[in-house]
Write a structure and sequence with these properties.
This protein has 240 residues and is an alpha/beta fold. 45% of the residues lie in helices and 14% in strands. A 7-stranded parallel beta sheet has the order 3-2-1-4-5-6-7, with helices on both faces. Strand 2, helix 2 and strand 3 form a beta-alpha-beta unit. The longest helix has 21 residues.
Amino acid sequence: MPDRKPVAVITGASQGLGLVLAHELASLGWSLVLDARDAERLERAVASLPGGPHRAIAGDVTDPAHRRDVVDGAAALGGADVLVNNASTLGASPLPALADLDTTAYLRVLEVNLVAPVALAAALARQLRTRSGRVVNVTSDAAVEAYPTWGGYGSSKAGLDHASRVLAAEEPSLRVYAVDPGDMRTQMHQDAFPGADISDRPEPEHAVPALVRLLVEDLPGGRYRAEELLATQASSAVPA
C-alpha cells in the first residue's frame, strides 16, 4: 500500500494567500480540501492544482451545513492533518471608524473571522486529534496594533489570537499556530485601501514559505510573524 498523503483543509482558497498555499502544498504531495464562496472560481482553482485527489467545497464558512460538508470532504480523503483558517472579511470598504461601524456589519466580521474558524476547528477536532494535527489561524498585525478604522477587523483577529491560545491549552495533542502573513498584494488589502496603489506590497507567494514551515517543521505552537519565520529560515541556511 502506498503511504497515505497528508490532507490539508484550507478556507478562502480560491484566490490570494489561500490559493498560493494550496499550490505549494499540492506540489509537495498533499491532498487538499479547499473552501471558498465563489463556486466557479473555486472549481478553476482546484482544476489548476497538481497531484491530488483534491476537493472543492463551495460555501460560506459561517454556515454549519457547509462546515459539515468540509469535514466530510476531509474524511473522504482519509482525515485532516491540517486546518488552515484563512478565510476573512474586512466588512465595509472603505473601513469605518469604530463609532461609525454598523452593528450588523460588525457581527458579520466577527462571525467570519472569529466564530467560523473556532467552529471549524471544533468540527475537525476528532480527525486532527487522530493525527496529532495542526491548526493554522491566519491573523494580522491589526490584532495587536491600534490602527484607526481597523477596529472591527482588528478586534476579530485579536479574538482569534486568544482563541488560538485557548485551543492550544485545551488540545495538547495539536499544534496550534496564529500567523501574521504581513501586508500582501491581495484583493482584500486593495479593498482596505480603495483606489490606492498597493503595488509596493509583496505578492502572497512571499509569505507562503513561512506557512509551510509551520506545517512541516517541528516548531512549537504559538503566534508567529511570517517575516520572522522567513528571516530565521534564511539565517539557518547560511553556512557557518
